[in-house]
């Protein structure tokens, strides 16, 4: 009989919030393995974390990562308690997250994208441009998507466009015009 993982209550503290690292993208074989799409760089870093929290039907459930590996250009994984293709099928499409506290500590001046989302963005003149909605990669550098009265796409280049990040105050100061 399959093991039903416990439903995980919403995290209380900021360090315990869920950080999405990927998703279950498909099935692999008949023994409960799944294909994994990873947002981590390099992609196999997602396999360093356990437990994984999978979002299903609006709630998070905890699964221990039994094993995982690179397969071709992607990843495959097997979760404890998921022993056949039918059970694995119920996981397809689920977001894969870890708790913020599971991520490695960062050095001074280093930031996880997830920590910047939601911060207020102001320019040197003190004009509030909006709030960071998301961050995307372009290859050359990452870009902040800031929404306020207008949407701003601000290159995440320290010392040029991004002057200061104060996580405690919840503010990113940028060298960016209101009308850019």
Low-confidence stretches: 1-12
In N-to-C order, the SSE pattern is: EEEEEEEHEHEEEEEE
How many domains is the backbone divided into?
Answer: 2
Spatial extent as radius of gyration: 19 Å
CATH topology of the largest domain: Elongation Factor Tu (Ef-tu), domain 3
CATH architecture heading of the largest domain? Beta Barrel
Tell me the fraction of residues in β-strands, as a range: over 45%
> In total, how many beta strands?
14
Q: What overall form do the CA principal axes indicate? A: elongated
Quaternary form: single chain
Q: Profile the largest sheet.
A: 8 strands, antiparallel
pLDDT averaged over residues:
91
Structural class: mainly beta
Widest sheet, order of strands: 1-5-4-8-2-3-7-6
Distance between the termini: 59 Å
Helix proportion of residues, in percent?
under 10%
Topology:
Elements: E1 7-8, E2 18-28, E3 33-38, E4 52-56, E5 59-63, E6 65-71, E7 74-79, H1 85-89, E8 95-99, H2 113-116, E9 120-123, E10 128-137, E11 142-147, E12 151-155, E13 162-166, E14 171-174
Parallel strand pairs: 9-14
Antiparallel strand pairs: 1-5, 2-3, 2-8, 3-7, 4-5, 4-8, 6-7, 9-10, 10-11, 11-12, 13-14
